[in-house]
Amino acid sequence: MSGMQGGGRSRSRVSGGDVAAQRAENAEAPRIPNLLRRILGLFAPHRPALIVTIVLVLIGAAMSVLPPLLTQRAFDEGLFPQDGPPDLERLAFLVGLMIAVYLGSVLLGVWQTWLTSTVGNTVMGALRVRLFTHLQAMELSFFTKTKTGVIQSRLQNDVGGVAGVLTNTISSVLGNIVTVIAAFVAMLLLNWQLTIVAVILMPILVIAQRRVGQVRARIASKTQESLSDMTAITQETLSVSGILLSKSFTRQQTEIRRYADENDNQIRLQISQQMSGQWFFAMVSLFLSSIPAIVYLVAGALMVNGQTDVTPGTIVAFTTVQARLLFPLLGLMRVALDLQTSSALFARIFQYLDLVPAISDAPAAQAVPAEGPDVGRVEFDRVTFRYPDAAADSRPTLDDVSFTIEPGEFAAFVGPSGAGKTTVSYLIPRFYEVAAGRVLFSGVDVRELEQKSLVSHIGIVSQETYLFHATIAENLRYAKPDATPEELETAARAANIHDTIASFPDTYDTVVGERGYRLSGGEKQRIAIARVLLKNPEVLILDEATSALDSISERVVQEALDTASRGRTTIAIAHRLSTIVTADVIFVVDGGRIVERGRHAELLAANGVYARLYSEQITD
């Protein structure tokens, strides 16, 4: 189980984890008001199934002690009646009744398992989708400051952890309680003296179970840590990037040794964990074997002294009931921790569900205007912005920035690294909220626009192109799911990538590999451009889209970008100034402010920051 800062590492659950560590981790869980009411609310749609489940659990647990009582009757009234030979008719009736009870228990058990599994997994699935949906609505800053492993832990480990609670804990608790009570009552009804003998030895096993359990728990915790380390090594070294790195530096043997060493550690821990429990199971076996023998001895002594009317059937039935008492009793010992752990899991899940997105639609949010003179205009009006995790007294990333880009214009933002250029591209689609001032899109403050409508009018091509491990066609259709093959080809031709795709054996059905590693950088960028062209946005943002390419790939991609930008408001965040010399307007950003603006020739003539940057690149 992972806390919010756990980095995605998951410990074992209550059944195998360190009890002390589990309690400490549970104590660190967030405090959620009305947690129990909210948990019960998840089950509200399944109330009839839950009621039936509880009834089945109670009936099944009560039925579990009937066979021993019927066994007593079978012995005393069928096999060894006091007044003669075995009564086969009576015996057959009792045996048939026992079989009927066993069959009923089996059928009830199957029905109960189906109900609990259906309800538990349905609730878990709905909770997982609900959490995933909520995370989709969170602002970009949430993901930049939260480890991916932590988010995955919420979706997989925590939601998966409550599945066991939903499907097992409640029915197990009810079943064990009823079984223990029924077994104890049955033992008293059979013979109270033998009950005292059987129960008085129980604490010995309970103490032993706790001691051995603590040892196993510590080893189990170390085992989970080792498994986490092995998983980390696998993720690091067997990803495409990891394989490229190890091959580039010929460090494959080093990675093999690192994995093998951790694997050896895992083997030792697994063996220790298995062996640490052998004494406990040996004691359980000895206990279960000894109790009937001791019961036989005590019963014989009582019968010799005439202090009881114990019959052979009573002895057999008593030892059978006693065997059914032990494990439910031990299971109940862990109930409190199980419930505490489930509450901690639910608290962590609800903590994420209670997060309020920092950026959301205003109550009267409107769609982006479809027509008018302002459609496609982008304007910053005295915008000041600092990132959410920045210190309050730190210098703003953007400070009192104002500019206007007219519809259809090609505008470029240039400047030193860290000047705030990319931040401009984040504020236009409202991925972040400005601290002061206004960002206007098509003449409307972006805070007054529906986010979905705003983003649908903007296309973004970034330096780090992300492609799914899917076919080229599937990657393109991410922008337009219902795009026809003809539309895909048109977009690909406009992006200068169709001929390349057509040269592949599977053409548009070619699988690009993880993050598009089967393609070159230029090919990935042109597919990304084709994807944006399918979206057909009014405003195109190019965030250093060619900075990582070689000169040949850059030229091909630049031609595609020129085609994509025709007839659209285009905003280019540029590192290579040679790509934006034809821009209608160039904004020079330095220290979070726009220090120069104009065309290429005008800025060179001004002999300022732009001229210096251009001179440095030409010299290089």
Automatic annotation (TrEMBL):
| Any one Gene Ontology BP term | oligopeptide export from mitochondrion
Keywords from the UniProt entry:
ATP-binding, Cell inner membrane, Cell membrane, Membrane, Nucleotide-binding, Transmembrane, Transmembrane helix, Transport
Annotated membrane topology: Multi-pass membrane protein
Residues of the region (Disordered) are 1-20
Protein's cellular compartments: Cell inner membrane
One GO CC term, this protein: plasma membrane
**Statement: the UniProt record of this protein carries the keyword Membrane:** yes
Keyword Transcription appears in the UniProt entry: no
Write one Gene Ontology MF term: ATP hydrolysis activity
Sequence intervals crossing the membrane: 49-70, 91-114, 177-208, 279-303
Q: Which superkingdom?
A: Bacteria
Please give the family membership noted in the entry.
Answer: Belongs to the ABC transporter superfamily. Siderophore-Fe(3+) uptake transporter (SIUT) (TC 3.A.1.21) family.
Name-wise, this protein is ATP-binding cassette, subfamily B
- Annotated source species: Cryobacterium psychrotolerans
Which classification does the entry list for the species?
A: Bacteria, Bacillati, Actinomycetota, Actinomycetes, Micrococcales
